[in-house]
Write a structure and sequence with these properties.
Distance between the termini: 50 Å
Number of helices: 23
Largest sheet: 5 strands, antiparallel
Helix content: 55-70%
Structural class: alpha+beta
Number of strands: 11
Oligomer: single chain
Shape: globular
Length: about 550
């Protein structure tokens, strides 16, 4: 039931939708339908909408409704698996720049949060903001040692405003969930939940600072991507102080050419940086539009990007990261059967899906693309279409994968603006194979085993007791599923594999450590003893390693 106190605001939303002739949205909610009778009384919009497509009309309506609705539209623009492409393209153009709040209020917030007069914190603080958005605004400042910084300050009262607007969005979502004919596909309450999560993250500037710090550490060389440093002593949950950087927006082609930068090298580097963030570091910038990705004008010999605004970052569960990487490799190699198998193995689709039908659907989507020159293939567009097709087979995607899809679209868009002839496939394929080769190499596996070995040894004495308790539960009938011979055999096989893996890992680790000790501590015995011990250790790992079934 919609609370009565939000009804007036719901009516305003409906009137704006009517003013922009978004009839299908009004028709979707029974509560709004009588308002169509009042259309002659609705104020005319400030723009001529007669020739505008529905996506543009929705974009203008959300802008008029306010910044939180703009945020909701931005989230919807990423859900190309749920909304039509024409609407998603228009919503991607939404900007949440709003009128700034007074600089004196920003100064007061900084002093309150950092518990010191502004003069002690900064040598100079400019009350005129550099930029202003719906959540926060940014001011230029100078430290006492002369370094330039920018200070991001949350808007006063933004917490209460967002809580109120989110409640309204939730009411709208409930109406759409109940009355919209395609609610099961659009999933409005899931979209509202994504907006809530995104806003919650953006309201904590200390979290944003931590994200910037981690991204900077991942690209500490600064050769490909530069991330401004965080000044932690001048940062809190409502204030973030960052090193000030200067650059060119990545979509300003004229300025990039004027600076003498190699756009082809920049485009290829942008693709490489994206795959390194996702598959090497598992931490990627999920709001990588041109306004947040600058180009360093001072680096003409070795061009690089500058990252800004770290409020929305993404990461994947380790399993999803692996399965996604394997899907990309299979896509590069046009192995449609493997793509179908990987989707089921990853748990993204029901186990009873017909693999031959899924393979045929994937082939139907992909083959038309491969008739074009590789430089004309949009990997982002292809991935979006694959997700849309897979939805017919009950595909379930996590929000992290949606963020990744959005970032892939943004990065490919930036790459093609810089170099319209870029061959995304030729750049991405070797980078991804190299990252996977390094990530899943025997040496990395050995390091992981060595890291987890103390934990395994700690829990090893518990195995007999756990097995005994499981058998007692079976005897009492508490685990009826295990009385099934198939389930019992599966449990037995799994236990045997785990014991085999543990024993071989212990033996292999001991042999490899022994080989290293022999090589470093007793070189007088020659190379053969440590070499034999090392080979035996690797064989132990190979014997114990679980086989795919």
């Amino acid at each position: 039931m919609t609370p009565l106190k939000v009804v007036p605001r719901l009516l305003r939303v409906a009137s704006v939708l009517l003013a922009y002739r978004l009839d299908e949205l009004v028709e979707a909610a029974h509560l709004y339908r009588p308002l169509k009778l009042l259309r002659p009384l609705v104020a005319r919009p400030r723009i001529d909408i007669r020739g505008l497509p529905r996506g543009a009309r929705l974009r203008h309506a959300l802008t008029e409704l306010g910044p939180i609705f703009v945020k909701a539209g931005q989230v919807l623009s990423t859900r190309r698996d749920l909304v039509p492409a024409d609407i998603a393209d228009e919503l991607a153009l939404l900007q949440d720049q709003v009128a700034p709040f007074p600089g004196s209020e920003a100064r007061a917030i900084v002093e309150q949060e950092l518990k010191s007069p502004i003069g002690r914190l900064y040598a100079q603080f400019d009350e005129t903001p550099l930029a202003s958005a719906s959540i926060a605004q940014v001011h230029a400042a100078t430290l006492h040692d002369g370094r330039e910084v920018v200070v991001k300050v949350l808007r006063p009262g933004i917490d209460a405003q967002i809580a109120r607007d989110v409640k309204l969005l939730r009411s709208l979502g409930e109406l759409a969930q109940r009355w919209h004919p395609n609610a099961d596909k659009i999933r409005p309450l899931d979209v509202v939940a994504e907006v809530e999560k995104m806003l919650e993250n953006e309201l904590d500037l200390q979290r944003e600072g931590a994200s910037a710090s981690l991204l900077k550490r991942n690209f500490d060389s600064g050769v490909d991507l530069y991330v401004p440093a965080v000044h932690w002593e001048l940062t809190s949950a409502r204030v973030l102080t960052l090193e000030r950087v200067h650059g060119i927006s990545s979509d300003d082609i004229v300025a990039i050419d004027a600076a003498g930068l190699d756009r082809k090298a920049l485009a290829a580097k942008g693709v490489r940086v994206f795959y390194e963030q996702v598959f090497r570091d598992n931490f990627f910038h999920a709001d990588a539009h041109p306004g947040n990705i600058w180009v360093d004008p001072a680096r003409t010999g070795e061009p690089r990007f500058i990252a800004l605004d770290f409020g929305i970052m993404g990461s994947l569960p380790e399993a999803d990261q692996y399965w996604l990487a394997q899907n990309f490799i299979a896509l590069f190699e046009r192995d449609y059967a493997r793509i179908a198998q990987l989707h089921v193995a990853a748990g993204w689709m029901p186990a009873d899906v017909r693999l031959d039908e899924l393979e045929a659907a994937v082939r139907t989507v992909c083959e038309p693309y491969f008739t074009r020159p590789l430089s004309q293939i949009s990997l982002a567009e292809l991935v979006v279409k694959l997700f849309q097709t897979a939805r017919r087979f009950e595909l379930t995607l996590q929000p992290q994968l949606i963020l990744l899809q959005k970032t892939l679209l943004n990065i490919e868009g930036v790459g093609r603006m810089l170099d319209p002839e870029i061959d995304i496939w030729a750049v991405a394929h070797p980078v991804l194979k190299r990252i996977l080769r390094e990530r899943y190499s025997p040496l990395r596996t050995l390091r992981e085993v060595r890291k987890r070995l103390p934990e395994w040894l700690h829990h090893a004495p518990e195995f007999p007791e756990l097995m005994h308790e499981a058998l007692r539960q079976i005897g009492r009938g508490e685990r009826r599923a295990l009385s099934d011979p198939v389930a019992l055999k599966l449990m037995h096989d799994n236990a045997q594999r785990q014991h085999k893996l543990l024993a071989c890992s212990l033996l292999g680790g001991a042999l490899l450590i022994g080989a290293a000790l022999l090589w470093t501590s007793a070189p007088q015995h020659g190379i053969w003893p440590p070499l034999c011990a090392g080979i035996a250790g690797l064989l132990a790992f190979a014997i114990g390693w679980p086989r795919s079934r």
